[in-house]
Amino acid sequence: KKRKREIIMILNDQENGFSATAPTPPPQSKQKQRRKAAIICLSTTLFLILLLALLGFILGVTVFRLREPRTQLVSASLEGVSPKLSFPVMKIELNITLNLTLLVQNRNHASFKGGLGRSVLLYQGNEVGEAELNPGLIPATGTATVCSNLTLEVHRFADSGLASLIRDVMAGQIAMESKTRIPGRVNLLGIFKKHVVTSSDCQFVVGLPDLKIKSQDCKYHNKL
């Protein structure tokens, strides 16, 4: 009987227009919800864009910042001596071939592919020899040893003053300067490629007669 009464009451409620479903929210409330969701979505997107921009800036000034490759003269050894006699004016020239070993350090977090380089040797501002540096690939944050033959024109030393040359030889050391230029390309992740020309100016002292590098001070430059 109790069950029948409940059924009768439900039927009466339906006949009188009552429903058990939840009331439908007004249209104005739906618009507010949509607007709130759009604002949240837009704010999240802007935050992610700013975060990516900040991350790119930090990587650009730290990891991906272009650093100049450094070249350093490690050693020099005597390869050969070649006298030269010229006519009709009697003139004797003496060329000495030195085997140079240079260390090239790539400080970038990307590989550096160097092209054909050139190194010039100066004594008191006068060019006394030059050498070509072979192309090569240096891995990211790695080093490579470059060997090259340099022809030293001894008679050009006299252009700077014979007395100065004799004084240096007697002292057992010669102060010289080298200018090295290496064109190349930095390759980042195989996607970003940047052409760069690295150059170095080094002041160094060579001991005699062992030809060992006693001291060295270098300055480096980059040209993009």
TrEMBL record:
Its main location: membrane. It is found in: Membrane. Gene3D superfamilies: 2.60.40.1820. One of its GO terms (biological process) is defense response to other organism. Keywords: Membrane, Transmembrane, Transmembrane helix. The keyword Transmembrane applies. The keyword Transferase does not apply. GO terms for cellular component: membrane. The chain crosses the membrane at residues 37-64. SUPFAM superfamilies: LEA14-like. This is Uncharacterized protein. The lineage of its organism: Eukaryota, Viridiplantae, Streptophyta, Embryophyta, Tracheophyta.
